[in-house]
Amino acid sequence: MRRLFLLLICGLAGLVHAAEPKVVSVARGLANPWAVAFLPDGRFLVTERAGRLRIVERDGRLGEAISGLPAVDAGGQCGLLDVVLDPKFADNQWVYWSYAEAGEGGNSTAVARGRLQGQRLTDVQVIFRQLPKVSSSLHCGSRLVFGRDGRLFVVLGDRFSRKEDAQKLDNHLGKVVRIEADGKVPADNPFVATAGARPEIWSLGHRNMQGAALHPATGELWASEHGPQGGDELNRVLPGRNYGWPLLTFGRNYGTGTRIGEEGPKPGFEQPLKMWLPLSVAPSGMAFLGSDRYPGWKGNLFIGTLRGESLIRLELDGNTVVKEERLLGSRNSRIRDVREGPDGYLYVLTDSADGQLLRLQP
Q1: Which residues of 155-171 are buried (b: 16+ CB within 10 A; e: fewer)?
Q2: Residues 6+ apart with CB under 8 A from 160
Q3: Average pLDDT, the chain
Q4: Of 59, 151, 155, 333, whose CB count within 10 A is highest?
């Protein structure tokens, strides 16, 4: 009975299925696009999981692949992933991206940066490598988010077969890391002085994070996380905190439905702000809306979903989710990313072999 009650509270209560909003197709023909960033001149920078970084013109025309990227180990859930611009891009032209990098032992999620010069990247540098590398094509994560202080958050997966490592500080699996823009370790990271710990670590106990954004009022990092069979989470990601995986989770083992760990709460572990139960929605990219373009939506959190094939809108009261609404469900499209553009409109990417960049109209 207790679990049934929690299912209702965490997964079903407050759920609304909304009427289809007006949607404009900005571009189509993208091959499994993963992330979109906005160039100052109104064009779009889009990653495709197979390893292409492309410019989409304002009229929707697709450019050729930008040259200069390091080799991408694409397969399964891994490949070319997130892309963000440096906060001072207009001055320095730095672009940052995450991707699966092959190496001894398999692959892992890496972060590189380069200067965008026309159709090529120059001065390319790999500034972070997730350790260890694992023979896996699963749970690569990831999203990149610049904090207000200019440091870069990188959210990472546990690589599926190494879930126990999410609780260990000697590796980057199932962690959020925080680095300087050039890859150095900030002196105020929470585990810098902890013997045997990777100094880049910001938080631990995560499974597979594919969405992250800064809260507009507090500047805190929030992230969405895939559970196994149920148990998807939305979390405030605070320094030095443990988010439980795989010791604490409401998710179940695939197929059997058996428990994986305890359900919590438990001292020493953070509880999610929201969970999706009993079915996973597979949350992906996320964004807080800061504009007044959509009446009543300012300050809401938007999360794309893969399994759920919808765009979730969450109304918040502080750190409490008070309402959930499902948008775009009638399109039957996996939504990989959602961002607020410089024009204040919401843009989403659909994940398919013929993916689209869409703009939501109020």
Answers
A1: bbbbbbebbebbbebeb
A2: 136, 138, 139, 208
A3: 94
A4: 155
Contacts of 299 (CB under 8 A, 6+ apart): 216, 217, 288, 289, 290, 316
**Three-class DSSP category at 190:** coil
Distance separating alpha carbons of residues 334 and 305, to the nearest angstrom: 6
User: How far apart (Å, rounded) are the C-alpha atoms in residues 319 and 344?
Assistant: 23
Which is catalytic among the residues 139, 172, 206, 226?
A: 139
Calpha distance 71→31 (Å, rounded): 18
336-360 per-position pLDDT tens digit: 999 999 999 999 999 999 999 999 9
Give Cα separations from 39 to 36, 87, 188, 250 (angstroms).
Answer: 10, 11, 31, 40
Tell me the mean pLDDT in the region 3-12.
Answer: 47
Beta carbons of 34 and 337 less than 8 angstroms apart: yes
Per-residue pLDDT, 4: 40
Calpha distance 241→199 (Å, rounded)? 14
Query: Sign of the CA dihedral 67, 184, 287, 5?
Result: positive
Q: What is the pLDDT of residue 19?
A: 59
List Cβ neighbours of 358 (8 Å cut-off, separation of 6 or more).
23, 24, 25, 26, 347, 348, 349, 350
- Residue 47 tokens, joined: 């990653």
Q: How far apart are CA 10 and CA 3, in angstroms?
A: 10
Q: What is the pLDDT of residue 5?
A: 44
Question: Confidence band (pLDDT; 50, 70, 90) for 22?
Answer: very high
Residue 139: active-site member: yes
d(CA 94, CA 286): 22
DSSP letter string, 16-71: EEPPPPEEEEEEEEESSEEEEEE-TTS-EEEEETTTEEEEE-TTSPEEEEPB-PPP
- pLDDT the model gives residue 321: 97
For the segment 74-79, the average pLDDT, to the nearest whole number, is 96
Could you tell me if 139 and 75 are in contact, meaning their C-beta atoms sit under 8 angstroms apart? no
CA-wise closest residue to 152 among 164, 138, 142: 142
User: What's the pTM value of the predicted model, to 2 decimals?
Assistant: 0.94
